[in-house]
Task: structure prediction
Amino acid sequence: MTTTTTKKITLKDFAKNRALSEHARKSKEVARALDAKADALPHARSFTSVQFEEFVTQLTPKRFELLRLAFKRRRSIVELAIASHRDQSAVSRDVAKLQELGLVTVELVANPGHGQMKIVTPVAARIAIDAQLEPA
Result:
């Protein structure tokens, strides 16, 4: 029989971890906006119908796959290319489009002995689409 232990996240964990700290900060901003009954929530993106149409057409299956792979863990462009079995230059173009759409951030980090590499991180764990269709 296998037993697993779970560790509760404490306030000290949030203070020590940059990602948890950033998540807590954004969560507080959203909570304050909800309490104030704000018209728009911080860290949420809204599109007009024209922008939405472009967004949907730009989020191709291959780009969505890159988004899913990056969500599993932060990866470099090279790692994404290997994981998706695609050419590195094509992946780089698709990541640039995902960045333009606001779905990922790209961070340049040192790659010892090889210069720099781009690390791709999704900006959100969830994308929700709430569309209301109106007659033309």
Remarks:
- The radius of gyration is 19 Å.
- Residues 78 and 88 are 6 Å apart (CA to CA).
- Helices lie at 11-16, 18-35, 49-58, 61-72, 77-84, 88-100.
- Strands lie at 75-76, 104-110, 116-122.
